[in-house]
Write a structure and sequence with these properties.
The protein is built from 14 helices and no strands. The chain is mainly α and 331 residues long. It has a single domain, classed as Up-down Bundle (Na+/H+ antiporter like fold). The longest helix is centred in the last third of the chain and has 33 residues. It is globular, with a radius of gyration of 19 Å. The N terminus is likely disordered. Keywords: Membrane, Transmembrane, Transmembrane helix. One of its GO terms (cellular component) is plasma membrane. This is Sodium/bile acid symporter family protein.
């Protein structure tokens, strides 16, 4: 996804601006009446396209070559799919009583989705971390997330939030997310050159799909009167929890990897890949998995966490870059 900072100075992240704008527009002018099925059908088609493109971009050879550094990848996957979900379950005890069910479900969902790909790699690159390791780990996280995230949701959501995920919902995920991903992989003999040569315009396609999904989710939320389901205090608590969760995971990934004996480059890759949560994967997957639920409220914590992680990791990667430059004056 688009990045909010580079090595020098601050840049406006227009993608984040677009996300906020889409949510605001949907709150003022939500899709209603005959526009509802049009927007809903567009989301189905665009999500299919999004995961087809993910599949078309992934080079199987890169994955095979990078898997050799298994300790790095296993560590990142443990943070993403074990540590995060455990914290998500613990949050039920800590704040479940203070939040409406759908907001807690949103926090749990943050803990279940896979890592980002592009921003994890970009921040690792800025910080002079292990770039090949980040590429492989973030890619594996997203690939496994296609299977693990729905399975974790199936196992944890109904017992933790009262929302039931039916086998039909899992089938929808397979048809709308896993199937296009596999088709994208199979299409690589025909599409690999095209997606490689058109990375920049295709990035706008990725971002555009997410903005449409955000608009759809918040339009649905307005029709379901989501803001009457919560209060300013509960929203403030949700934002605070997202910030504390991010800070905890940033500290934990750095402290634990130091104890485990990883070098600086690996620790940077683990920190950025093991703490990130993918809006690009989590948002469309939520619209499929939680169909019929107040999606706008459920995905709100993920949007908050996504914005916070880009801002925090942008600042951290810039600090690491300055440290690296001071230690390597020869460049």
């Amino acid at each position: 996804m688009s990045q909010s900072s580079g090595q020098h100075g601050f840049r406006v992240n227009w993608f984040l601006v677009g996300i906020v704008a889409a949510a605001v527009v949907a709150s003022i002018l939500p899709a209603r009446g005959p526009m509802v099925p049009v927007v809903d059908d567009a989301v189905i088609v665009l999500v299919f396209l999004l995961f087809f493109l993910y599949g078309a971009r992934l080079k199987p050879s890169e994955t095979v070559a990078g898997i050799k550094h298994w300790r790095l990848h296993v560590t990142i996957l443990v943070f993403t799919f074990v540590v995060f979900p455990i914290i998500g379950i613990a949050l039920k005890l800590l704040v479940g009583w203070a939040l409406p069910n759908m907001l807690y479900l949103g926090l749990l969902w943050v803990c279940l989705v896979p890592s980002t790909v592009q921003s994890s790699i970009n921040f690792t690159s800025i910080a002079h971390g292990n770039i090949p390791g980040a590429i492989v780990s973030a890619t594996i996280s997203n690939l496994l997330g296609t299977f693990l995230t729905p399975l974790l949701a199936f196992a944890l959501v109904s017992s933790s939030s009262g929302v039931t995920i039916t086998p039909a919902s899992i089938l929808d995920v397979l048809l709308q997310i896993l199937l296009p991903f596999i088709l994208g992989q199979l299409s690589r003999p025909l599409t690999a050159r095209f997606v490689t040569e058109h990375k920049k315009p295709l990035k706008f396609v990725d971002n555009g799909v997410i903005l449409v999904v955000v608009y759809s989710a918040f339009s649905s939320g307005m029709r379901e009167h989501i803001w009457s389901m919560t209060s300013i205090g509960q929203l403030a608590l949700t934002i605070g929890i997202c910030l504390v969760l991010l800070a905890l995971m940033l500290w934990l990934t750095w402290a634990a990897t130091g104890r485990l004996g990883f070098d600086r480059a690996d620790r940077i890759a683990i920190q950025f890949c093991g703490t990130k949560k993918s809006l690009a994967t989590g948002l469309p997957m939520a619209t499929v998995l939680f169909a019929g639920q107040p999606i706008g409220l459920i995905v709100l914590p993920l949007m908050i966490f996504h914005m916070a992680q880009l801002i925090a990791c942008g600042a951290i990667s810039s600090r690491y870059a300055r440290q690296w430059a001071a230690e390597h004056p020869e460049g």
